Every structure is written in structure tokens, then in C-alpha cells.
Amino acid sequence: RDAVISISNDLGRPKAISFWQAWRLPGVFAYSLAYACLKLVNYSFFFWLPFYLHAHYGWKESIADELSAWYDIGGIVAAVIAGIASDHFSSRTPVLVCMLIFSMGSLFAYANSPDNVLINSFLMALTGFFIGGPANLISSAVSADLGKAEQIRGSSEALSTVTGIIDGTGSVGAGIGQLFIPEIEAVFGWTAVFYGFIVMMLCTILCLTPLLWKEIANRRNPRYVHLHSEDSNDSLGSYFDSAADSAMDTSQLPVRARHRN
């Protein structure tokens, strides 16, 4: 009679967390609210920019559609630069806040842009740079960073939950914005819409301010530099140690044990 001994890969695997536990992870609530305000502005440009160019400046719809691509180009370039900068400084919140501060100035400038295709395209790309860049960074790199918290480290399910919460909250904010924009434009005009965008960017900064102060305080801690400098070496050493241990354990464990009566 043969008895098969199976080895489970789930031993030591982090348990999945609930929806409300994910909300209570450090930074999730703040980044979710910030992304709701930011995604409202970002998606408003996606949906309304061609219509705005046609209605406000009287440009042809084909030209308006082509020019609106400059907003996307600015966001794509910003996402790459912001990602590189945040990795270089090992901190994402200060990079985000700096870009968000400049976004308010770019929004004000674009709201008062003259009837000139070249100037409008430049200001549009600049606005996309300071809005689209942080939006892409929060929805990707920041979500992954939050998923590395001690409580859920190594759990892909928990990382998916955190990413879903942040992106879902942002989608709620974006959806609410699309309901109010036509009403505000009909009563107060497009200038009021852009000033409302500036207010949303300010709300985004306020949501991130507690995390910003926390990161600044951590960087002032003398232990921060020491621990951070050793982090890459420790992680590399841990990788090779775990690989060696895994190879040793696997070689010593029998895949099948036969017991005969």
C-alpha cells in the first residue's frame, strides 16, 4: 500500500484581509481621498476638453480632438519623470505634493489661455504634466507601496484589495465630478469650472499633508538613513539565504514515501 505525502505551498502564506481592514492600513484612507479629488480633475479633462475647445474658442471639432492629445502627452511624460524622481529620492509623497502645487498654477494659466493654438497646446501639455503625472503615480506605484505594509506583506490578495480601494474611490470622485461640471458651466461659465478644479487640487494636497509631514519626520530620524542604506543589501542577502534554505529543504524532503505492508 502506498501513502503519498504532499507538501503544501500555502504554509506560512499571509492571510487575506477584509475590506475594512484594508481601509485601516497606513496611508490607504488618505491616498484614496486624494485620488478621488485628483481623478475628478483628470477625467474631467479626458471627457470635456475637446468639447471645451470647440465651445469656448469656436475651433473645429477635428482640431479640438487633435489638440486634446497634448494633455495626454504631458501626463505620460510626467508619469515617467515622477516615477524616476520618487524612486531616486525613495519618497513619493513629496514629489506628488510638489507637482500638485504647480498644477494649481497651470490650471489658472490654462483657464486664462488666449485664443492661440500654440499657447493653448503648451499650457495644456503643462497642465497634463502636473495633473496626469500624479494621477498615474498614485494609481500604480503608490498602490503597490501601500501593499507592502507589514500587516499584508507577501499577500497578493491584500495588494489587490488596496489597489481596488484606491482606484475605486477615485472612480467615485470622477463620476461625481461629471455630474456637476455641466451644471456649474451652465450657471457660472467655464472659468468657474477651472477654479473648481483648483479647489480640488488643493483638497488633494490637504489629504496628503499628514503623510507628507510623516515622511519628512522619518527622514529627519538619524536611523532612517542607516536603515534605508542597508535595506537593499539586506533584501539581497535575504533573497540568497531564502533561496539556499529552500534548496536544502527541498532536497531533504521526499516527494513520495512508500510503505509496504
TrEMBL record:
Source organism, top-level taxon: Eukaryota
Gene3D superfamilies membership: MFS general substrate transporter like domains
Taxonomic lineage from the root: Eukaryota, Metazoa, Ecdysozoa, Nematoda, Chromadorea
GO MF terms held by the record: transmembrane transporter activity
Species this chain originates from: Acanthocheilonema viteae
SUPFAM superfamilies assigned to the protein according to its UniProt record, in alphabetical order: MFS general substrate transporter
Membrane topology: Multi-pass membrane protein
UniProt keyword annotations, A-Z: Membrane, Transmembrane, Transmembrane helix
One GO cellular component term: endoplasmic reticulum membrane
Membrane-crossing residue ranges in chain numbering: 28-49, 69-86, 93-111, 117-138, 158-181, 187-213
InterPro entries: MFS, MFS_dom, MFS_trans_sf
Principal localisation: membrane
Compartments it resides in: Membrane
Ranges where the Major facilitator superfamily (MFS) profile domain occurs: 1-261
PROSITE patterns, alphabetized: MFS (PS50850)
Stated name of the protein: Major facilitator superfamily (MFS) profile domain-containing protein
